[in-house]
Amino acid sequence: PCSVSAALQEQLKHLTLQDFPCGLGSWNKSRRSPHGGQPRLWADPARQEEDMPLGEESPEALIELLKDPHSPWALPPGCSHQDQLLREMAVLEPELVRGSSVFQVLRSLRIVDKGVEEVDAGLLQLQQLEELILSANHISRITSANLPRTLKVLELCCNAVADLQDLCVQPPPELQHLGLGYNRLYGPSQDKYLTAAFWPNLVSLDLSFNNLTDLLGLVSQLSSLEKLRILVLKGNPLALIPTYRGFLVDSLPKLSILDDIHVGFDERHQFLGLASQPELMRSEARVVVSVGDMKGVPDPSTLQQLVDDSDFPVITYSYCVTYEF
Fold this sequence. Notes:
Layout: H1 4-15, H2 59-67, H3 81-92, E1 108-110, E2 131-133, E3 153-155, E4 177-179, E5 204-206, H4 215-222, E6 230-232, H5 244-251, E7 257-258, E8 261-262, H6 265-270, H7 300-308
Parallel strand pairs: 1-2, 2-3, 3-4, 4-5, 5-6, 6-7
Antiparallel strand pairs: 7-8
């Protein structure tokens, strides 16, 4: 299976950090670190062109080649801000991103829609990583032992995650955002992993478009997350409960945003006391289905016209329509 490490290596290869105008070469050889010591940094924007040794390019000129959209060395559209920063660092401080040294400077890693299936232990090389975005891949299992302890943001939207047990064995202690929208989480079996015992610093949680069904059970677990301010639950069956939003607003008084909508003072006052009435959480929902078009069924208005214009016996048609959810 394709791993995060393999996708990262492919991404770094695509960035060509060791080739002109990045890296070390004849275009900036005077900036090579002598005897393997600290690199000689000439990244001062005020440096004058005439100070450059003959045959070399100034850092400003090399950076311009990376930023100019018409340059053959510019990154293609869709590349992340982190990719651009890495290439600029490969110009200004080339020895810091040489070989495995690049793993020590990466703070954000974005690997989206690359067919990744495995979050492997190779990620532990990224000792400064704070943000990991792995959306739109094929990840079904995440082992917390393979995640850098420095993580503050973990985004796993649009994957195939169905179980949080392995993720919660020893999760990153400083995590502030956990994105699990558009996965396969099934309630109430996963509710027990959404507590402060696993996520003491969580500020933002996205659980949208899963299969969570137990609103009362979920709220009882989420209430332990004292720092939680942003919660997204839309798209789950429990969001169909008529008193869904009001119950959440009153049960989690520290929430600032629920389902991308700001929770205001008026709304809190409106739903005051609803949390103390769990009997209103009926395990049923009302759904209105509007059928816009049907094929293969005679038009009733045409049949009625035939009946009105005819003296012959009336013919009645009956149809059975089945909806599968």
